[in-house]
């Protein structure tokens, strides 16, 4: 929709109609001490032509690098049909399908998405998505407090492999509501110390990220059973693509996980300078009324035809704010549309093949780095499609030199912990061929030889 700015005459006319002398009068209830004169970090305004040129320059800066970075955002092949369909006007411009009679197409798509995510995670029910994976973990923690009424604890234990980025977001969102997030110790293998679950006061929930941030696979069955043994609910944070190969959280341990969440970006959403993303959340049917966000249900109308509508709405727009399951959640409709089309196109065989190629490619790269440049695997535990390597130089210097040779080489773990300055998290997806990996290894040898 074109933006048509108001003229000074328009503004004056509107102010006169409401009896205000200036726009500032509309905000006179805000104390002067809370106001700022300007935004120092915001650059001066630019024209449309200048902005277009700037964005082309930014896009060009990203071009030409073969990406081997993961760390929560993954470059996967997205079939052309996915966004060709997702950007049709019916989906592209639609927002919340509150009017069921006018939104059957959107509602059916969300229902199909929910069905796919519930099946993928091995759970009973899914919501219509959340902001992103990190905020989904925070919402899952708050949901666990509501659902686990037998527990009086406000502590959430996070497995050793839980993303520090996710944990910080959870603290920012849920910490203000009295939740504390502690991290379980890590074994030399890179896995969580299961025995530590029962070593302290019983938590209200245990978060298990599988695969972990550094790519390792935890002993999820033991962790799940240990958490349930102390009366805690289990929150699984998963990469949805990995579930094409790994056991779904609904089957972890004797009872399965209680809540499953994560980042849906690997399903048909391209990397694009920091977005878009969408979070997913699934759970058991018994906890459905504690689930945040929207839920689409399927019913039959009076003529026997299938119909779809928003149901069990427990957001602050629909009930008293104090009774709402969430006050800050939404669904990322367009990204969810793309993910649903993507999963529908690939199906179970396509997702499994994609995941298998990711595992094989990462193993090839890791073996080559160990063999050719003397890198060392930091952890011995099995991995999915990421692995942490110790380099004979700092990861920061390695990344700079590799970028000069056309490779975004990996994630510098020193950004999270100075003691990991020489450690690089590498990731290979199905977009990388054997030739791409061999080219990376050849460039890595040049870099390390020059460093020595």
Oligomer: single chain
Bin the strand percentage. 5-15%
The tally of helices reads 11
Number of strands: 15
The SSE order reads HHEHHHEHEHEEHEEEEEHEEHEEEH
Shape: globular
Rg, rounded, reads: 24 Å
Indicate the mean pLDDT.
93
Uncertain stretches: none
Largest sheet, strands/sense/barrel:
7 strands, mixed
Helix content estimate: 25-40%
Order of neighbouring strands in the sheet with most strands: 2-8-7-6-5-3-4
Amino-to-carboxy terminus distance: 58 Å
- Structural class determined from secondary elements: alpha/beta
Secondary structure: elements and pairs:
Elements: H1 8-18, H2 48-62, E1 66-67, H3 80-86, H4 89-92, H5 104-121, E2 125-126, H6 133-147, E3 155-158, H7 164-174, E4 180-183, E5 205-210, H8 220-229, E6 233-238, E7 259-263, E8 279-283, E9 296-300, E10 306-310, H9 333-373, E11 376-377, E12 386-390, H10 395-404, E13 407-408, E14 411-412, E15 423-427, H11 434-451
Parallel strand pairs: 1-13, 3-4, 3-5, 5-6, 6-7
Antiparallel strand pairs: 2-8, 7-8, 9-10, 11-12, 12-15, 14-15
Helix pairs in contact: 3-9, 5-9, 6-7, 9-11
Written account of the structure:
- The protein is of the alpha/beta class and 452 residues long.
- Helices cover 35% and strands 13% of the residues.
- The protein is built from 11 helices and 15 strands.
- It is globular.
């Amino acid at each position: 929709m074109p933006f048509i700015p108001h003229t000074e005459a328009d503004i004056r006319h509107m102010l006169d109609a409401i009896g205000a002398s200036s726009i500032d009068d509309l905000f006179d209830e805000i104390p002067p001490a809370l106001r700022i004169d300007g935004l120092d970090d915001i650059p001066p305004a630019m024209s449309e032509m200048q902005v277009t040129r700037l964005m082309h320059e930014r896009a060009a800066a990203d071009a030409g690098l073969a990406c081997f970075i993961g760390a929560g955002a993954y470059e996967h092949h997205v079939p052309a049909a996915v966004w060709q369909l997702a950007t049709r006007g019916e989906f592209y411009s639609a927002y919340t399908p509150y009017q069921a009679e006018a939104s059957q197409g959107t509602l059916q798509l969300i229902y199909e998405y929910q069905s796919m995510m519930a099946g993928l995670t091995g759970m009973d029910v899914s919501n219509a998505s959340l902001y992103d994976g990190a905020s989904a973990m925070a919402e899952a923690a708050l949901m666990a407090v509501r659902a686990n009424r037998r527990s009086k604890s406000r502590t959430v234990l996070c497995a050793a492999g839980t993303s520090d980025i996710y944990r910080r977001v959870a603290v920012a969102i849920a910490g203000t509501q009295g939740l504390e997030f502690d991290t379980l110790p890590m074994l030399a293998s890179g896995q969580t110390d299961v025995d530590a679950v029962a070593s302290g006061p019983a938590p209200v929930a245990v978060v298990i990220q599988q695969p972990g941030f550094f790519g390792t696979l935890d002993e999820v069955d033991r962790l799940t059973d240990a958490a349930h043994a102390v009366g805690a609910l289990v929150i699984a944070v998963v990469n949805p693509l990995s579930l094409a190969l790994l056991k779904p959280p609904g089957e972890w341990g004797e009872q399965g996980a209680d809540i499953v969440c994560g980042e849906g970006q690997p399903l048909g959403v391209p990397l694009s300078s920091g977005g878009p993303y969408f979070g997913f959340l699934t759970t058991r049917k018994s906890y459905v009324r504690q689930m945040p966000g929207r839920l689409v249900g399927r019913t039959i109308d009076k003529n026997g035809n299938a119909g779809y509508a928003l149901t069990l709405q427990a957001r602050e727009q629909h009930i008293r704010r104090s009774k709402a399951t969430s006050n800050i959640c939404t669904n990322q409709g367009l990204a969810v549309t793309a993910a649903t089309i993507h999963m529908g196109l690939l199906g179970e065989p396509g997702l499994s093949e994609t995941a298998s190629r990711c595992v094989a490619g990462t193993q090839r790269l890791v073996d080559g780095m160990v063999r050719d440049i003397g890198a060392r695997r930091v952890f011995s535990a099995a991995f999915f499609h990421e692995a942490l390597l110790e380099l004979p130089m700092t990861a920061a210097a390695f990344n700079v030199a590799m970028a000069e040779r056309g490779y975004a080489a990996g994630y510098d773990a020193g950004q999270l912990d100075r003691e990991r300055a020489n450690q690089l998290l590498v990731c290979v997806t199905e977009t990388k061929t054997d030739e791409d990996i061999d080219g990376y290894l050849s460039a890595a040898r040049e870099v390390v030889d020059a460093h020595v």
